[in-house]
Each structure stands twice: as structure tokens, then as C-alpha cells.
Amino acid sequence: MTAGEGSLSGAIRELEKETGLVANRQDLLLIGSLKKNNYFLDSYTWKSPEQLKLTDLNLQMDEVYSAQFINLTEWERMNNIQLVVPVLWDRYNLYGSEVGEWIKLES
């Protein structure tokens, strides 16, 4: 986040910067906020209004190593063989049920 920027604006900016994907404010959902030392770590989820393809992504290579679309079974398998960044797995464990409920409501 930059000085004076809210977490929602920061999430939208980072999504576009790192992936090239553009999200509208109303399409992001705050699923949780954690207090860390002297800051808060907000987590948002975004469900694209259209089916995405890998060619839709424009990855910022100094921040994003690679991308792929996977299902939950593959996500768990990747975590079991240590291909998932631990902090992402921790956040999934904290907020996975909220994300699942939101996806069901939006479908």
C-alpha cells in the first residue's frame, strides 16, 4: 500500500500490477483482517465476471514466478509437496470457508 491508500485500493492496484487483471471495487470482498505488530493485513477475494484464460494474465515477472488455474485437490497436493508459499496456505486455512460461501452465493 502507498501512503494514504486504503487497503481496497491497494488490493485493486496490486492485482493489476502483478497480473494485469482489472477488478472493480464492488467485485472485491474483504474476507478478513489480521493485526500484525503495527499494521493490519487485509485479505480480499475476487471472482472474475468472465472465464479467465492464462493468456489474459500479464505477469510482473519480478513478483510473480508463474501462474496456473487449479482446483482445490491440486492446491492441496501442491501444498503437500511444498509448492505453496506457507503464508498463502495459512490465509487459505483462515478464510477458505468464507471464500467457498461467497462463491456459492455468487454462482
From TrEMBL:
<dbReference type="InterPro" id="IPR015797">
    <property type="entry name" value="NUDIX_hydrolase-like_dom_sf"/>
</dbReference>
<protein>
    <recommendedName>
        <fullName>Nudix hydrolase domain-containing protein</fullName>
    </recommendedName>
</protein>
